[in-house]
Each structure stands twice: as C-alpha cells, then as structure tokens.
Amino acid sequence: MGGYKRLDLDDRRNIEEGLGKGLSFRRIASLIGHSPSAVAAEVKTNRDLLRTKVAKIPCRQAKTCKRTDVCSTCPHPHTVCARCADVLCLSVCAEHLALVGCKRTASAPWVCNGCAKKRYGCNRPGRYLYRAIVADEMAKVRRSASRRGVNMDATRFEEVLSVIRPALARNLSPYEIATLYSADIRVSSSTLYRWVEHGYGGMANIDLERKVGFRPRKVHAPRKITHHGYERSFEAFLALDQDERDGCLEMDTVLGKKSDTRCLLTLYLRSCHFQLYILLKEKTSKEVAAAFDAIESADKTLFDSLFKVILTDNGPEFEDPTALERSVTAGSAPRCRVFYCDPRASQQKGRCEKNHSELRQMLPKMQTAMDALTQGDLALINANINSTPRRSLLGLSPMEMLVRVWGEQAMGFLDLFSIAIPKPDDIDLCPIDTSGIDEDDPSL
C-alpha cells in the first residue's frame, strides 16, 4: 500500500459505492489502497445521521408505562411521562429508542447504505447514511478545528511567550524567532503566524513589521536601453559563466531624508547572501569609487576575492565604470568588471533590492537622517541584519554562511568593517534613534 495517504473525495466516493453494493470493509480497502480499519473508522466517524419520526413507531409499554422524569429538564417533575402534553416521550426515552433501534447501525457496517429496507421507508431511530460529499466536508471541518487553539499547557505556553514577546519587540519575524530559538520554543514559524493572527497571548498583526508595512506598488514607465553599451549590459552579464554570476556582487544605494547629503552604499554578496552597508559622504560616482579604493587598499586579496564581478543599476552614482574598475595600484590590471541592469529593471538584481526591506526595519524610509548616522551605527546595522536566519539558506544566517564559504578570510572581512557576531538575544532590528545625535560630532 505504500506510505500513509489521507483519504480524498475520490476514495470516499469509492467507499460510498462499495457500501451500496454491500461489499465488506476489507474488500473496499483493497480497492482504494487503504487498510480495512481505516475504512471502518472513516465510515463510523463521518456517517450522517438522518431525521427519524419516532412517533410512527409505537411503544410496546405505552398503556402500562409509569416512568417519570425521562427528560433531563422536566417541565412537569414527577408526572408520568406518557401523559405529558409538552414533550413526546417516545423521542427522548432511551429505553424505547434502544428497543426499536436497528442493529445494522449499532455495529458494522454502521450505516444504512446497501440495506434492502431503506427503499421501503424504514423509519427506525438512529439511522445513518454515508455520503461521500458530506463525509469529505465533515473531515475538512474537523481537521481545521484540530489546528485551532494552542496545543500545550498554560505553564509551557507562558514560557514560550516569554521568549517570543521580547523577540517580536526587537522586530524579529516569526521565521527568525522559530529558527534562532528552536531549542527553547520548539514551534514552527507557521504556528507563530497563526498565534499572532488569532491574538493569542496579547499578540497582534501590528507587532509584525512586514505584515502591515508594505504599500501598493507604483506603475513604472516602459524600459529604456542602457547607455553603457553591450559589453556592460545585463545581456553580457548573463553570458558569463554560472560560477561568475553566482559569485557576483550586487550594488545599490539607499537614501534617507530629502535634506540628507549622505547615503548608504549597499553591497550584496550573492555567494553567501551577505549585504554590506557603507556610509558615503555624498551620492556621487567619486564617493563610490573612493569606497572601492579604501577597501582595496586595506586588503587587496580580500577585494580580489569578493569584488570580481559587480552588477548595479543605472544611477548617476554608478555612471563612471572606469573609476570603479581602476585599481589603486598604478599600471595594474582592472580590479573588477562592472555590469549594468536594464533601465527600470531592478528585479535583475532583486536579491539586493529584497534585502533593503531588512534595512528599512532599522532605518525607516523618509524618517531616518543618514547625515546623523555614525560608523558605530553602521557596524551595528551590518551585524544585526546579517545575523538573522534566512529560509534561502536553510535556517543559516548570512554571517554564518560567509564564514562557511570564506573561512579565515571571512573573519578578516568582518574585522575590516568592525562587524561583531551577536548572540540571538542581542539581535535587535528596531529603528535606530538618531534624534539625539550631535551632527557636529567629529566621528560622524
């Protein structure tokens, strides 16, 4: 029969047909590929009770019966039930129902399907009929109801909430909480979403930053042809070897308030899903090239390993590919190759764009002044965002993946940007408060 398979509507139709033909449970089970016990349990559990007019079946003790208080809530206590004008005693008397009941529904096959008397208008109490459509709906309702509520005792639930609530307050998603604290809570991310949806433990959807934070997308204008030529186009990028494309670096910038001069340069390493954030003094191609120069000067080997192929958009800050590719060492070969996405096609570097949603948790759009950020803030942002587990990495964080892929070289990369590896309880994705920062501070 193979592995376990839940009964579906087709199986139930075959059961209904088999019962109508008078087949045994064993025979029906062999036809649908399930065990006889599964078929018997299905019929008994999902059979449908039919209405019965018990008054048509006379009581054998009607003239001599002196029973009282047959009803659980008798309107006339201690009165002979056969004389009651409010309740028909035949419909509630257990002794009468047991006497006139049918043995066919009290034992296998449990239903009236296939019974020869059914066509003659049998009106015995406790009549059941197995109907595939009704049985399938009953099974779905019962399965849905079984998933409601919290499947643990109150004490254990409070222990789990003591871990979940602080993590939600730090803007961690249910998936990140379920992965980081898997040993403590032993609950899946889908269960956490369900708890929040139903408001268990005082939680609500408003606690989930992404569930309420997205706005409708705007309609974009038609694409234009890139002005950098075919040799740097996205089509040329797709012509590269698969290993080169998988190991490329996606580049973009993120702005703050309109009054800001500074901006963030974001560098996404495809190989390990790590996104690095660098603070630029202004949004110009000269500043981007200067950032590349500083990284190459600090560690030439590291730069050559991680910055071989770069994919970016057509923003004015990336308009000078020659400056980006030119090495700080005079007379040296180009340090990298720069390719550009098609205009208005940001999905071509979609991983970098998607990762910006993580950044916007800590730096809300149009609310955070980039001019007020410090290098300490950048180190904190880089550490927190890259320490959260990702589904695409099977529960690993980009930080863990970086170390696994690059080993000791990765530690040098983290040290270069003063990035520390935080513990799960130290990961905090709440917005950074820059309102009290002195913009004249020389560390800015």
At a glance:
Helices cover 40% and strands 7% of the residues.
Which key features would you list for this structure?
elongated, 444 residues, Nucleotidyltransferase, domain 5, two-stranded antiparallel sheet, five-stranded mixed sheet, 40% helix, single chain, alpha/beta, 20 helices
CATH architecture of the domain at 230-426: 2-Layer Sandwich
What is the strand content?
5-15%
Which CATH C-level class of the domain at 230-426 is it? Alpha Beta
Q: Which class do the helix and strand fractions yield?
A: alpha/beta
Task: Count every beta strand, where a strand is a DSSP E run of 2 or more residues.
Answer: 7
Query: Quick one: overall form?
Result: elongated
Major sheet: size, sense and barrel closure?
A: 5 strands, mixed
Order of helices and strands: HHHEHHEHHHHHHHHEEEHHEHEHHHH
How many helical elements?
A: 20
- Tell me the distance between the termini: 69 Å
Task: Work out the helicity level.
Answer: 25-40%
Strand line-up of the largest beta sheet: 5-4-3-6-7
Tell me the CATH topology of the domain at 230-426. Nucleotidyltransferase, domain 5
Q: What would you give as the CATH superfamily of the domain at 230-426?
A: Ribonuclease H-like superfamily/Ribonuclease H
Mean of all residue-level pLDDT scores: 84
Low-confidence stretches: 436-444
Please state the CA-atom Rg, rounded to the nearest Å: 35 Å
Task: Give a structural overview.
The protein is of the alpha/beta class and 444 residues long. Among the domains are: 154-213; 230-426, Ribonuclease H-like superfamily/Ribonuclease H (Nucleotidyltransferase, domain 5, 2-Layer Sandwich), CATH 3.30.420. It is 40% helix and 7% strand. The chain has 20 helices and 7 strands. It has helices at 9-20, 25-32, 36-45, 94-100, 103-106, 132-146, 154-169, 174-180, 182-185, 189-198, 209-213, 234-238, 242-246, 285-298, 300-306, 321-325, 350-362, 375-385, 398-406, 408-416, and strands at residues 48-49, 128-129, 249-254, 263-269, 274-280, 309-312, 337-340. The protein has a 5-stranded mixed beta sheet with strand order 5-4-3-6-7, sandwiched between helices. It has a two-stranded antiparallel ribbon with strand order 1-2. α1 runs antiparallel to α2 (25-32). The protein is elongated, with a radius of gyration of 35 Å. The two termini are 69 Å apart. 28% of the residues are buried. Residues 436-444 have low confidence and may be disordered.
